[in-house]
Design goal:
By secondary structure, this protein is of the alpha/beta class. The protein has a domain at 5-83 and 159-249: 3-Layer(aba) Sandwich (Rossmann fold), CATH 3.40.50.300. 25% of the residues lie in helices and 26% in strands. The strands form three sheets. It has a six-stranded mixed β-sheet with strand order 5-6-7-3-8-9, with helices on both faces. A three-stranded antiparallel β-sheet has the order 2-1-4.
Length: 265
């Protein structure tokens, strides 16, 4: 398998305009067809790291390359599912319209080809929402919207897929389908998935990136209850389900404002 480096980050620092340091001295490599899960507390810098990969913001210092280029030049090779879609729900868009937005080369008011629509139909089917294609997006449940946004990210046929909280608001039954789809997708693309929920299926994840201003990288096989406790600042249990490793929150609604960085020896 081609194991070229897809994302290369070196000595990166990022501060917001108020000089608040969001990410400090980050160095990270993500390789072809690797599945990476970014975990960490609220405000730790997870989404900021994704935005840097997309070129939506620029580092204060250090460097980031995506496919050997600046993120801006590589954006057409990236599929992105945001945590929140900035879309006026009063605007009369149906599900197919939203997914077609993922055909980046066309632009919002572009004329979509027959092939664009075939691809949009295919990814809707892959995410089990093909029957919703003509339904107004505003009428969907939170879980249905989440599936549609994942389909939109896949519509550009990306080489790198960035997912910000992809399993938020979706029912447990579809979560299993999502991880099956993740297994299939990673054969043809690199995947970076942000999750605030530390319940994850380790057999589908190659690398865990712990982000709390600083970054520490682990292979998924190295993750223990102590590692997760160090990230979130409270005890968790590790439960083995059919050889899949899951870390379970004691209280998934707890806020984490007191903990600095990952705790490692």
């Amino acid at each position: 398998m081609d194991c070229r480096e897809v994302v290369k980050i070196e000595n990166l620092n990022f501060s917001w305009d108020n000089n608040r340091l969001a990410l400090e001295n980050v160095s990270l490599g993500i390789h072809n067809c690797e599945v990476v899960c970014i975990v960490g507390p609220n405000g730790g810098g997870k989404t900021t790291l994704l935005n840097l990969m997309l070129g939506l913001i620029k580092p204060s210092s250090g460097s980031i390359k995506v496919f050997g280029e600046t993120p801006e030049k590589s954006r057409y090779r990236i599929g992105y599912m945001p945590q929140y879609l900035k879309l006026d729900l009063q605007f009369p868009l149906n599900v197919m319209d939203v997914v077609l937005m993922g055909r980046l080369h066309c632009g919002f008011w572009g004329r979509y080809s027959r092939n664009d629509r075939i691809i949009a139909e295919r990814v809707l089917d892959e995410m089990s929402v093909a029957d919703l294609a003509r339904r107004p997006f505003a009428e969907l449940s939170g879980g249905q919207r989440q599936r549609v946004l994942i389909a939109r990210a896949l519509a550009c046929e990306p080489e790198l897929l960035l997912l910000d909280e992809p399993t938020a608001n979706i029912d447990p039954g579809f979560q299993e389908h999502f991880y099956d789809k993740l297994r299939e997708l990673h054969k043809r693309m690199s995947i970076v998935m942000v999750s605030h929920d530390v319940g994850f299926v380790s057999s589908e994840i190659d690398t865990i990136v712990c982000v709390n201003r600083q970054v520490v990288v682990h292979k998924s096989t190295e993750i223990t209850a102590d590692t997760i406790s160090g990230i979130y600042g409270y005890n968790v249990k590790i439960i083995d389900h059919t050889q899949d490793l899951s870390a379970i929150h004691k209280n998934r609604h707890q806020q984490f404002h007191h903990h600095e960085g990952c705790s490692h020896d």
